[in-house]
Inverse folding.
């Protein structure tokens, strides 16, 4: 692992035969978990586009997506369906760079198909003669040996690796990856502007949430839950008990913020129904990633399972309290100096209440600190884009 950026250089013709730096801007094919209405992954894509175009204005993108038409509409980029393998092969031939990421593509927690699918696309690009960059990746856990072996073999052969946290780099090292161009960066979504709290309050009100007065009411406590991907039973009743405690102790309003409806909505309704205190579950089916950013920014505290709910909160200076289901939650909270209240399976309701109260008590100072930390992480996300584009220039 290392830091720093290689310098640009080379001739004016790109690997695809098109003019590169000094001529037409580079063309980048991006693949990840896009087009599935997951606000976190859509924010990653938006952050990639923003960062690359800030470094190299006019960078062209074609995105491999679950819903190509929606990706074109939301992000203003070209897109191809992830089911059209022949078309993806053709688009790889037109690209100067193939970008794998960001996000948690290389893990087997949420299913066994992710690793062979995403590594298979990387191998396709290599066979096409295109440089592959693992970009802002969160790697692991990978529990099964075939996935670990495949990841080691392919990751050792890509052109460049940037990971979003030190733990991901250490995980690759433990797998046996000894890549000379592996850099620790940050999650790509951090390259976005923070959410707009005023717009977030308007969105929540329009979605049927009765908001407390901004200055005289209790705090607005945002909650992000997701389906439980692990074994055993999740402790939803303990989470409900903790949220009841927070609402009573603060006089606050609890509002659930679904980052991937309808799955998150189902869990949110189940937890809200288990609560004794009232809690709002807004009608958020049509929300974009920007709507989710703004809704999180409108809160005074964010209790979250979703990785990017915690990211959005920290960006906006909203103190996050994590409820962990995956090591990536703990890794991000360590990056920003925030707390995890425990795992969803063994959650101590009182510990979550105390963590929430402490965060609310010092939220003005904590908000300033979080904004400063995430500004530094945003610079790291920009650096990851520079590294990838510098690699294209060096090859051109």
């Amino acid at each position: 692992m290392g830091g720093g950026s290689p310098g640009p250089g080379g001739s004016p013709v790109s690997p695809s035969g098109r003019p590169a730096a000094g001529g037409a801007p580079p063309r980048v094919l991006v693949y990840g978990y896009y087009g599935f209405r997951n606000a976190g992954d859509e924010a990653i894509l938006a952050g990639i586009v923003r960062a690359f175009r800030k470094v190299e204005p006019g960078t062209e993108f074609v995105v491999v997506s679950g819903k190509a038409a929606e990706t074109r509409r939301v992000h203003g980029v070209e897109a191809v369906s992830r089911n059209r393998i022949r078309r993806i092969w053709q688009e790889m031939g037109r690209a100067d760079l193939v970008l794998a990421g960001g996000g948690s593509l290389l893990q087997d927690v949420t299913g066994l198909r992710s690793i062979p699918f995403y590594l298979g696309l990387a191998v396709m690009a290599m066979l096409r003669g295109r440089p592959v960059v693992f970009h802002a990746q969160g790697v692991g856990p990978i529990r099964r040996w075939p996935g670990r072996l495949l990841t080691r073999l392919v990751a050792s052969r890509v052109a460049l690796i940037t990971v979003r946290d030190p733990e991901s780099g250490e995980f690759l090292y433990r797998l046996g990856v000894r890549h000379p161009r592996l850099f620790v960066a940050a999650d790509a979504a951090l390259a976005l502007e923070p959410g707009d709290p005023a717009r977030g309050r308007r969105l929540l009100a329009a979605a049927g949430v009765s908001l407390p007065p901004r200055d005289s009411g209790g705090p607005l406590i945002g909650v992000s839950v997701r389906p439980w991907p692990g074994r055993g039973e999740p402790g939803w009743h303990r989470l409900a008990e903790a949220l009841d405690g927070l609402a009573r102790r603060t006089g606050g309003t609890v509002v659930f913020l679904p980052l991937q409806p309808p799955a998150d909505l189902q869990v949110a309704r189940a937890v809200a129904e288990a609560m004794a205190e009232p809690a709002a579950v807004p009608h958020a089916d049509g929300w974009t990633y920007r709507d989710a950013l703004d809704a999180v920014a409108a809160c005074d505290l964010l209790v979250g399972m979703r990785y990017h709910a915690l990211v959005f909160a920290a960006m906006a200076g909203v103190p996050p309290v994590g409820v962990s289901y995956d090591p990536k939650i703990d890794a991000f909270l360590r990056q920003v100096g925030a707390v995890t209240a425990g795992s969803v399976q063994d959650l101590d309701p009182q510990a979550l209440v105390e963590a929430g109260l402490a965060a609310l008590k010092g939220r003005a100072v904590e908000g300033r600190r979080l904004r400063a930390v995430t500004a530094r992480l945003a610079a790291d996300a920009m650096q990851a884009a520079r590294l990838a584009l510098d690699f294209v220039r060096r090859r051109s």
In short: The longest strand covers residues 97-103. DSSP finds 14 helices and 13 strands in the chain.
